[in-house]
Amino acid sequence: MGIRYNKIKDKHQREIVLLKSFPCKYGKCSFCNYIEDNSLNEEEIDRVNLEVLKEITGEYGVLEVINSGSVFELTPKTLAEIKRIVIEKNIKTLYFEIYYGYIKRLKEIRDYFKGIEIRFRMGLETFDNEYRIKGYNKNFSLNEEQLLEIGKEVYSVCLLICTKGQSKEMIKRDIELGLKYFKAITINIFIDNGTIVKRDNELVKWFVENYSYLADDDRVELLLDNKDLGVFEQ
Length: 234
Description:
The protein is α/β, with parallel strands linked by helices and 234 residues long. It has helices at 42-53, 76-88, 106-112, 129-134, 144-153, 168-181, 201-211, and strands spanning 5-8, 14-19, 62-67, 93-98, 117-125, 156-161, 184-189, 220-223.
């Protein structure tokens, strides 16, 4: 049994919930085993989620909602309960995850939560188009013009680093471009999880030796372990 609610008490203070959802629309990323938390049973999804959402206090005025996919895979009942709670608890800022395929639909969520600042996070994983497609099986390619447009809509991107096939130069470039195009980035050091993507421990050692200072950068959330946010489903 995992943990679905936590408080982030140091940098970027907020409450965070891990919710169940319908299957990820894409669901083909070669590094992802989170989709095992998805369900087709809407009643079960809502039963789990409504219980988790009871934990929210609103004490920081900021809530992050994560699920094994995008906000668009949450059920109508779950979304309605989130809306009720953020109004009741006077939550001003709400984080949601999205997949690139939903980039033209973000206004729907902003309109639904009118009056709340919505910050979207997107799993970009890397700015190297070839590696994103061939290494991670995340099948989209972006040019600079598209990145500039996405940067207007998406608050932050997640970068997946230290996988076999990556290089130090790729990681350096990913961090530089992430901070160039987006207000914030989340850096995830890959943990072996039974998928075909594998961790490169030499890159991990190099990264920790050279980039630990990013933990003090307000624009960066550095996750050395995928359980660092305190929510996970086993």
